[in-house]
Amino acid sequence: MRLKRMATIMITIGISLTLVSCTDTPKNGYEQSVTALTASEMEGRLTGTEGNAKAQAWMEKQFSRIGLSPLEGDSFAIPYDHVFFDPEKQQITLEAIYEHDRRRTFKHGASFLVQAYSNDYNESVSITTQRNDPDLANKMLILDREIDLSTLTVKPKAVLVKTAEFKNNVLRQSSHTDMPVIQISPMTYQKLIKDQDKLQQLQLQIGLRQEQIEANNVVGLLPGRRESEVPIRTAIVISAHFDGVGWMNGTPFNGALDNASGVSALLELATNLKEMQQGEADIVFAAFNGGESDLQGSNAFVKQLTQYYDFFYNINLDSIGGASRGAALITSANNSTNLALEVGNALKKTSIPIQYSEDTGSNDHLSFSNHAYQSITISDEELTSIHTRQDTAQHIEYEYLEQLVNALAAFLADEQHQPASYRPTTHLNMYDDDDAYTEAEIKVMNQEAERQLAQLQLGQYKQYINPITYKAALIYKYEDTIRDSGVLEGLVQGVSLPQQFAGYTFEQAHVRMDYLYFREMNAPELYEIYTIEDLQADDITSLGLQYTNGDTGISLYVHPLGKDEIVDMNYSSPSVTVEEYLSNEAPSYYLQYYTESDNSLSYITFLEVDGNRYYMTIHELMRWRDGQGLERSSTRTDKEKLVELVQKLPLESLIRELGL
């Protein structure tokens, strides 16, 4: 392979230069990391290449050396599906066509370089240097400098811009433009301008060929403390992408600033924090692949991470410590202002100048913010050297990296900067009911819903991320069993639970509020618990009460009936029997029992109290042998006893006192 031959020559030259200049070995961990990742054998670390695989192996070795734990299993490598455009397999040509079909072919990567493009492209048209050319829509525009293309009133077939130093962007399909933008060398520009009158057409062909491959992120973990009995799983994610833009004409683009610098800071931060006492949250160190290829690695990882944690926040390190860096630039999406300001304040304490930006850019923190998690990227303000051959290790200031890492270590060691302080915020939509899920996916969704529900009390609600759809889902507690009557009375206005009833003492109440389904609830922050403040007695759709007296007791189920609500008692089945009884002294009643259970007799009646109708079920109870619970005790042979007991109960007085 041509690249490998060139790499061998470069290694030889590098060794010779080292011997001549007697360069010392790297002085510290930062420099060692940058030197290793920018070595010629890494071939620019393009995802999908052997050089990238070597960089991945090196990352895994560093995580092991530091003493991090894998996120799962015994490997730091976490695979994901990656769309790869092999530079050696793409069909990109540029030809100048003269009279008699005489042609001049320009070499991609030397004479010209595709900067932005759509899917496939094949055009042969004339050229112009005039932005106001009346036939601009049918020509390619040649420019001597870069301009804001949005200022063009007419879109040409393509734009070719004279560029002194090519910016090597990773090949990929772009959804942002259907007009190719091409970098051309000064010599190519001069040739096209000189031959403009003789040139009949300029032919540009772009044929992109993609492959689906398996790539790997490299992820290590510092476990946090486990203090809560049922902890909410939280994490802080420190990230940096380790991939690069590869090579051009056999010469690797070393990518020292972008992003060997960020990786070196991540590794030293992990080393420092390993020696400190951990907070309750896990600290996840993620070296992303595919950062230069539409953030493919981090996009996949955020979805994977929701399987392990309820919420987390992200600090991403990308292109830091350049000699011409300017201020430290903290970039965030609009849901991460709080995190950005807090990290900025921490850096200011060490005299690092700060600038803030909400420019969307193309950094891995976007993969987190797009899923509502607070996230930021710390980078240099000045980044003109990235994606060029000038991005080499000699332009990195390692003392600055150490200063930045020390500030971040202090920030992360502070308990107030745990994930609870930076909960996700979202305006995501609920998932569609029409979506189809497998049985396994439904099981996972139900388990997560139950786990979230267990953290709520009656009348509380919150939003959380569905582990299958990765969208926000609203969950609320509309039913609960309450053993302290004062709790229910404090939550629901107008309700009163009598402590004594017909010689029995209150033991518990099971409350349902089905009408909460129709309430509009606003939960702006994920995982934040909210409480409905104006619950009324009318919100209660059913109330099950238990009163006891030693080892016996009574159960009363009360269901307020709506104005037009009908309960049909004319039913029977092999397992349930219902018998109606008429009485002149009391309201009509029903007796119900389960055929296969002897102790299952219930008394059912309908009452009208102060113009309102109620459906009620009553049965006797006895305590289990272990003394921990109650069960029904009335049998079919005890029906006279049960009827006599119920008809002596002051049911109407109870309903009035309950306030339903």
UniProtKB/TrEMBL annotation:
MF terms from GO for this chain are: metalloexopeptidase activity
Q: Which PROSITE patterns does the record cross-reference, listed alphabetically?
A: PROKAR_LIPOPROTEIN
Q: Which InterPro entries match?
A: M28_fam (IPR045175), Peptidase_M28 (IPR007484)
Q: State the Pfam families in the record.
A: Peptidase_M28 (PF04389)
Q: Name one GO biological process term.
A: proteolysis
List residues of the Peptidase M28 domain.
217-411
Q: What is this protein called?
A: Peptidase M28 domain-containing protein
What organism is recorded for this protein? Answer: Paenibacillus paeoniae
State the taxonomy lineage: Bacteria, Bacillati, Bacillota, Bacilli, Bacillales
